[in-house]
Input
Amino acid sequence: MTEQMYRTHHCNELRKTDIGREVKLAGWVAVRRDHGGVIFIDLRDREGLTQVVFRPEENAEVAKQSHSLRTEDVIQVCGKVAPRLPGTENPKLATGDIEVLPQSLTVLNRAENLPFQLDAELSNEDLELTYRYFDLRRPRLSHNLQTRHRVTQATRQFLDSQGFLEIETPILSKSTPEGARDFLVPSRLLPGKFYALPQAPQQYKQLLMVAGMEKYFQIAKAFRDEDLRADRQPEFTQIDIEASFVTPSDIYALTEGMLAAVFKTARGIEIPTPFPRLTYREAIDTFGSDKP
Output
C-alpha cells in the first residue's frame, strides 16, 4: 500500500478473508451514528457501502476528529479490517461481516447543508434537476447509469463478434428531408447558412455500404425537433445497424442474438431465441394493432 494511493479497495470489496489487512478507503459519508461516543460511519462509493467504526480505545485522536463528520462529507480512512462483533453482522450488505477500524482520517471535502435527503422521494422535479449532481448519488439512479453502461458494452461486444465495425458518422451535416424537423446550427464561417443535427445516420451508413464496409453499427445520437410525447424525445440514443448481403431473416437473428446478449449481461436474464413471430395479419386479428 503506497502513500500516494487514495484507496486500496472500493466500498463493496472487503470480505472476511481481508480481516487483519491494512486498507485505505475513500468515499462519501452516507450515514453517521453516535453510539455512546463510538462513531459508526457507512462509507459509500459507486460500488457500495463499508462500515467504519471510530472507537476511542483504538485511536482517541481519530475518534475525536470523527465527531465533526456530517452526511455527504468526502473522506479517506486508513486502517485495519476487523470482524464485526457477534450479532451485529448485516447479511443485507456484501461487506456486512466486517468493519474498518481507522488509524487515520482525512476530510477531502466538507459537505454544505443538503438541499434534500438522498433517501427521501421528492415531488419537486425542478429541485432534483437543479441539484442533479446530488440527485445522481441516489442508488437507483446510479444503478441506472451502470446498467446503461453494461447494455452498450454488451451491444458492442456482440456486434463485434458478428463482424460489425463501429464507425462514427458526422454530427454537423446538410439538412435532408426526414420525418421530423431538424435542429439547425448557424455557421460562423458561412453567414446565413446552417448545419443540421442528424435525425439518424441514414445517408452516411448507406454511403458506407456503397463503400464496401458491409457491416456497420453505431451507438448514435439522434436529434429531432418534435413536440414531447411518450415515445418522442428531442434527443435520444439509438443502436444503428446497416449490413450488406443479408436477408430479413439474417437481421431477425442478429437482433434476437443481440438482445439476448444484452439481457444476460445487464440483468442476468436468459431469454430464449428465436422470438415468437406474428404476421401482420395475425397481429391485427389478435390484438388490433401491428405493435402489440
